[in-house]
Amino acid sequence: MSDSPKKDHGVLYIGMDLGTSRTSVSASNGVRETVYSVVGYPKDVVSMKLLKKDVLFGKEAIERRLSLKMFKPLEKGVLKYTGDAAMDAEAKQNLKAASDLIGEAIRLAKPRKDELVYCVIGAPAEASLKNREAIIEAARAHVDSVMLCSEPFSVAYGLEWLEDVLVIDIGAGTTDLCRMHGTMPEEADQVMFEIAGDAVDAELKRLIEESCPGAQFTMQMVKDIKERYGYVGEPSERCLVELPVDGKPTQFDLTDQMRRACSILIDPILKGITKLVASFDPEFQTKLKNRVLLAGGGSMVKGLDSAVEKAMKERLGSGKVIRIEEPIYGGANGALKIAHDMPAEFWEQLK
Amino acid sequence: MSGFKETLKDAVRQMSFRTSLESLKKKGVQQVSVLGIDRIIALIEAAVHRSLRQHFHGIEREAVADATKTEFLRMLRSNEDLQRQKSEVERQKERAEEEIDVLRRDLANQQQELNLKLEQSAMSVASRYQGENAAIAKKVADVLRTLSSSENLSVAVAEEKVMELVMDVVSSERKAAEEARAALRDREVETLQRRIGKLNESLGQTERRLQEVAAMKSIDGGISSIYRDVQGVAADDAHQGKKKELMAEIFKANLKLQRKPGA
User: Fold this and answer.
1) Predicted ipTM > 0.90
2) What percent of chain A has pLDDT over 90?
3) Subunit contact B247:A338, Cβ cutoff 8 A
């Protein structure tokens, strides 16, 4: 950004949710965009000439994946990057893909060249120091000043729920639970486990293979089916999908398999809630149980809020779970609000 | 206020598009409902005022209305700037394309001229030599005839001697003339080649400029933020104190992270 023209037109704030499956941005110019966290580079000169691009992102990359070397730079909520000086070529390429992805997300926010760009990125609560440094480095090339904050914290801040609230952020790689009590959450306030969207996909794939002999499908198809029909509890519709069998489209009823796959989320979430509630000040435990926020792409599984609430009542005596209105943009909106509320002198010092 | 109404009206006009009744008919449209521009402006104004009345009171409402009006005019001016920049880029592109056409035509003419000169040169040399040789032969024959009238002299010997003498003179003359002509031709060729080289360089530069202009045209100007200045926690925020503390904590963590050596 150092070669930019005079930045006297205004200030653009960007909030970014850097996720394993999707990266979303919300900006103070009204732009809200999301892109699959997938980066593809042309395999050879022929494919580069055909695609007319050096790098492709998201859906476009998935659609052209046969001509591309594909990278998913985030895994289990963090960059696939060790931070070792002697990291292998694959790790270096993943780091470059992550940098390109962050750059693309900022470009999607459509910043003007004559505006200051201040960005807050919601990073997984458990991201390592090296990981955080890598994210900062990647973003610095595209913005004037950047800060990181914990992803579940940004969700709660965006909704102005700053005290006695428990955020459950279900991503693709990890599910993060975070207890807020008016200060920045510490390690003891957070629980993270790897049963999340990707684990549901893997379980659904296993169940389809088991019950639909001969059906051909890819992981991407399984993911699409889950995003369309995912539910727990009582089904609102039958999950009827067409999958090819020996090249012929054949209809399968996956209603039961879908419920079983999505239900694997409930038990670990309950264990996490129990741990965070039980270790909280007893006077405020009831209040905390009644202020549980469900966020992240995984929270779009139909009936999950009711199922968690029901399980909480059975195990903890009471509970109130609220699904946030925009699960995809909850983190980005919160990060945007943090960017807005950050004083000018703090931004200046980090330039 | 009437000035603002006119600006609003201009903006609505700029955003609208013109079409003919014929083209609408072709699209299968038989009837259209017409809404006058004054009516549209009145509706926008009424909606804005009603919304302001519902959400704000007194001075606050006036302040918001003024700020909105200022921001609207700023965005409109910004849009006009972008339009002007776009037109300028397009004019530059057209000029560059015209320049390329002129240079290409010039280059083709120069190359044609060079080929013609080379051909003419080769032909004139050949014809000149023919004429010279015939003149020499005639002169030699004249000499022989003169010698043959003399007694005690073998004609063959005399002819051989004369030819030797003549050819020696002629060949040295030819050599000198050829060198002079070659030097002249080389100078001409060199000049033309230099000119072609310059034209090629100029063509390359213009093409590069055209590419740059084309690239400039595809640059997205971006969308303006709603903020002119850095904001911070609002003074009337119910959680102002708590939020400021949280912002300070986030900042401290980031300062520690970003000021690390090598970070």
Assistant:
1) no
2) 54
3) yes
